[in-house]
Amino acid sequence: MVKYIDRESDAQLMQRIGWHQVKAVEDRAMRRNFWKAFAFMAPALFLVCGLLLMPVVYNIYFSFTKWKKFAGLDEFAGFSNYAKLPGNPYFDEAFYNTAIWVAASVVFPLAIGFGLAVFLRAVPFGNMFKNIIFLPRILAPTAVAVIWFHVYAPHGVINSLLAMVVGRPVDIGWLYQDNTVTPAIIATFVWQSVGLVMVLVLLGLSAIPKDPLEAARIDGATNGQVFRHIVMPLLMPTLVVVTILSVLSGFTTFDLLWVMGVGYPGQRTLSLAVYMYFESFQKGSWAFGSAIAVVIGIVVFSVTWIQTLMQSRVDKMTR
Amino acid sequence: MAIAAHNIDFDAIEARERAAQKKNWPTFILALLVSMIWVVPFYYMVVSIFKTHAEYAANNPLSLPEGLSPFFDNAISAWNTAKMGAGFANSALYGFVGAGLAVFFAAMAAYGLTRISFKRQNFWFMLIFAGTIFPFQIYLIPLFFAYQKIGIINTHFGMLLFYTAVCIPFPVLVLRNYLNGLSREMDEAARMDGASEFRVFWSIILPNCIGPMTATFLLQFTWIWNDLLFSTVLGNREEVRSIMNSLQIFHGSYSTAGPNLTLTAALIASLPAIVLFLLLRRHFMEGMRVSGV
To answer: For B18-22, B100-104, B169-173, which range has the lowest pLDDT when averaged over its residues?
Structure first.
């Protein structure tokens, strides 16, 4: 290994090759390049900063004020908006329902979508079934909510099917009762989102190269072993992405709950997203509403952070 | 996940899978039963739009309609009462112009971020991409008040402004990845020949980005078409109302409208997205692969 050619120090070397001049020229070019690039980035930067990032800053600021609509601005209120959150029966209820939502919107679509993906690979005309199950995905959530609102109606599909089973008329108001409204809306969410999970899992499955599977089979591995030791690890990145997407949509879903819960007396408690909308845009408690939005933001942030951690771990595992 | 999907040989996979689906009829029956869960709500919607109000109320919701003619009355009545014509025009404006501008601006930004070398490129990228990490709820209150103050609340301009902004960050991510993988030889050659940066972008980069730009445009277009939250908050006057907002308001008055009418309205409102999906299925799947949305 060559170490030093002579005893010249780094500084002397730089001096000899005129590094300072080179650097100055380069810096000038970089600065000129920056303004060129900035011209290209400007529309995107202005729009994103003005309409997305600035509002975030303002929202955080509002949440620390006593701000009431049109009544003088911005009296600083410290954490008092946040202090009012826990213990507020509506907030607690909304938080609890959101937790259920998130848990259910991760577990059910993933389990059912995964099961269907594996099952439908071996079924004749499997593609037809895949398309049918994917179909709801291309409908707008608002339209899905309208359809299912009537499916659950007292004179709706579910009750008439139940009536056929029990042999007498049934008129359960699925979307009007405390104990059925959340499960009913979750079922609709699952109905709509299973197709996407299934397609993503199928894509993940089909991306698995065939050679290691065959090699393992030749070496005498059983189907179960192949699945557990080869398929599952290779599918992990897909599963992580699907999980995170489900968690985030579970936290922020608004349309489905707002439209399906239109007749439910406790609508505001259906989730944090709905509660935030209700408190600010129906009741006018703007500062309180922005505090709820910050809580949602913190949760979403931590989930994204966990995602980055998990993804880097998965990347290491598969490499 | 975003990049790995490019080099999958889909045809070979499908052929392999078809070979695996031997004549396995018991599983077919099972699949048929399971898929009923997805078929029945659609069946219910289709039979309901052919019923009159009285017919719907008198019969089982799953019964077949007596005739097909009530559909026209339903469609006309839903279209007029829900003011769907205006909703259609507004949503088409927001979708085409908003998503179109967003993808174009995103392509410009991606060009600046990948083809011109300057310091702290990553910082500027993250600044734009930061627009995707916050939940939508956090934008609502400040936007509502800022819009009121400037006087662009309940205007087409205000709606377009927000939709364009919110649709920029994700295409920037996709197009930046794509451009990083695209060979630099062509644009270097053009620059040698004296082309300006904008000329390089316009005549060399843009034509090469049509694929991913279409895919992201479709994703953002459907997002805008389907959005309810922002059109409720920022554009709730009748002239600027989006299609989903009209549907939601019509549905809210369900006691007077009747299920046959609201279901017809729901179908009409979803139709453009469905048609677009069926026509451009390949591009949608491409977009889905790069995003998982």
So the answer is: B18-22
Q: Answer left, alpha or beta for residue B83, where phi above 0 means left and psi between -120 and 50 means alpha.
A: left
In this model, does residue B41 exceed pLDDT 90? yes
What whole-number distance in Å separates Cα of residue A95 and Cα of residue A116?
A: 31
Contacts of A207 in chain B (CB under 8 A): 4-5, 8
Q: What is the distance between the alpha carbons of residues B174 and B109, in angstroms, rounded to a whole number?
A: 11
Best mutation target, B30, B137, B175, to test chain A (most A CBs within 10 A): B137
Predicted confidence (pLDDT) at residue B6 exceeds the cutoff of 50: no
Top residue of A53, A58, A134, A138 to mutate, by most chain B CBs within 10 Å, is A138
Contacts of residue B106, defined as CB under 8 A and 6 or more positions apart, other chains included, come to: A44, B168, B169, B171, B172, B175, B216
pTM: 0.86
Q: Could A293 and B141 be called an inter-chain contact, meaning their C-beta atoms sit closer than 8 Å?
A: yes
Chain B: residue whose CA lies nearest to A148? B41
Distance CA A157, CA A239 (A): 34
- Do the beta carbons of residue A192 and residue A107 sit within 8 Å? no
Q: Which residue has the higher pLDDT, B274 or A145?
A: A145
List C-alpha distances in Å: A266 to A86, A250, A258, A281, B284.
18, 19, 11, 16, 38
> Dihedrals φ, ψ of A68, to 5°?
-115, 155
Taking the CA of residue A116 and the nearest CA in chain B, the distance in Å comes to 9
| DSSP at B5 | G
Residue A255 distance to chain B (closest CA, Å) = 6
Look at phi and psi of residue B77 and say left if phi exceeds 0, alpha if psi is from -120 to 50, else beta. alpha
A62 contacts in chain B (CB < 8 Å): 141-142
CB atoms within 10 A of CB B146: 17
The confidence score (pLDDT) of residue A212 equals 80
Residues 259-288, chain B, touching A (beta carbon < 8 A): 259, 262-263, 265-267, 269-270, 273-274, 277, 288
pLDDT digits (tens, 9 = 90+) for B71-81: 898 899 889 88
Q: Which residues in chain B touch residue A277, judged by CB atoms under 8 angstroms apart?
A: 137, 140, 229
Domains of chain A by start residue, with CATH: 2-62 (no CATH), 80-318 (1.10.3720.10)
Please check whether residue B173 touches A, CB under 8 A: no
The answer to whether A241 contacts B292, with C-beta atoms less than 8 Å apart, is: yes
Contact B43, B62 (CB under 8 A): yes
Mutation target vs B (from A132, A240, A275, A283; most B CBs, 10 A cutoff): A132
Distance between B194 CA and the closest CA of chain A, angstroms: 16
Q: What are the φ and ψ backbone dihedral angles of A76, each rounded to 5 degrees?
A: -65, 135
| pLDDT, tens only, B127-138 | 999 988 889 999
Q: With CB atoms and an 8 Å threshold, state whether A43 touches B197.
A: no
With both helix axes pointing from N to C terminus, report the angle between B259-279 and B281-291 in degrees, rounded to the nearest 10: 90
Query: Mean pLDDT, consecutive 10-residue segments, chain A of 319 residues?
Result: 64 82 86 92 96 94 76 71 88 91 89 90 84 88 94 90 89 89 93 89 82 82 82 81 78 89 85 92 89 92 82 71
Element containing residue A238 per DSSP (H, E): helix A232-252
